[in-house]
Amino acid sequence: MKKRNPCGALFLAPLCGALVLMMVAECRFFSAAAIGAQEIPDELRQQTLRFVRQLAETGLPVQEIPSWMKPLNHHGPWAADVTLYRQGEIRGKGQAADPLFSSALEKAAKAAMPASTEGLDLQDSRFLISVTSPKHRPIALIEWHGKAEELAGNVTAVRVLDKALIFRQIEAGKQYLLRVMHPEKHGFYKKYDVLRDDFGNRLRTIYSASSLLTLLKISDVDSDKAIAGVTPRIAEFLLSMQCQDQATHGAFYYAYYLDSQTKQNKFVVGTTSKAIFTLLELYRRNQDPRYLEAARSAGDWLLTMLNPDGSVINQVKDHNGQWVYDKRYSCLYTGQVLSALSRLYRTTLDPRYYTAAEMIARLTIKRARAQKYFMKDDYRYPEDPVPTSWVVMSLLDFYKIKRDAAAGHTLFKSARVLLKRQYRNPDDLVNFGRFKGTEATSGNGWIGEVLGEVYALGREEKKKDLEAFKNALLRLIRWLIQNTYSEKNMFFLKTPAKAIGGLIRNPHEESVRTDAVCHGINGYLNIWQELNEGPLLTVPEK
Q: What predicted TM-score, i.e. pTM, was given to this entire model?
């Protein structure tokens, strides 16, 4: 359970329709004609917050039960949990159970007020409120600027997705990346531990390459001069991480240790592949031959990591003076190499890269057919969808070279199999949009990036089932935005500014992975310009 969730009871249960009907029938306040049935739950949250606020500010007992509470009293028993936050600290907490909704909430609210209010500014404080019953969906809310914001699990809910919201998230993600970049080395960390305000002591090459690539894509949308200013510096850090030693010439060191100012003697094919992605994009934009030379040198090293059957050696690292090779099969690493070599060939037309890419593609297609297009490998859990997403992305890159029919068939077949694993029940707002097999925003964000690429290719080729990909991506974007740190859902942090715009790693860990931010933004950008104004996806509240 996340540390932000002191109530321990915010996960949603099914809503009882009878309760809503009772509220409409018996309360003039909840007149369907006045506000519409779908707005009843939100208005109930607002009234609940006002009730607790009034008790906190006046300290007076309730003289008369408000009319809106009376129908709820018939449907207990109720358990109320009220927590008072100020600047990330819990200043008071109250819990109560009672057959009556009104009594449970009143008791919990009064118990939440500290014995001494000295130095406590109620206007600068926020209430977290949960009222539950065994029969009904809880009322779960966090206060934000005087308004009750719905909680989905332990994050603020997103029920309406539109183009403006997506763009705001692109901008927030951009600011996050610029904010967490190392101010002197201009490299990027793997993860930000939000609770400890800690990035660790290593700058990672792959996350630096990915961050720069995402920032370049954002600059195409907003022409931010800040991105133009830092691009050469991040690029220099990236180039500085390429190995010049004979044994591993062209490969990219895995990480840079800030404390010892040394490079980690470990070379992962995925790190080098992702560096190639970024170097080729830099070269495309300014034709600086250094970037193309570095990309080719990296590609030549990848060729040495290829087995005769098309499988890939994942990494080589120094262990007590001896080189150790990892030969397990990985769809992710294999896919990254296939994508890198395919992109290199498209830029250079060097036949060595195509020959190697074709060898990997044939093996990938063979494995996909044998596994019925949902992939498993030696790294991931059997239900993890990420291996399949890398098959899709890598074959898409290979397909773009010569429109290979087998690659095209396999990538679209695998993508459609992937779509079947998305949570599509809108009543389950906590999961609606994410993919089964991964709770991480990094994995889901990557799938979103891939779906955007598939959608773009499908539009180009006028595929018939494009709406399925577009709708799946919109559902996923809603989920990703819901699971992003914002001022609304960071009530439990003393210093929240650094994390804003970062995607929350998963429901069990308060941290941000850099690749989650990059993948999320890339997915948003892949679809953003194709979207119309106005609501794109609405999840009604029953």
A: 0.91
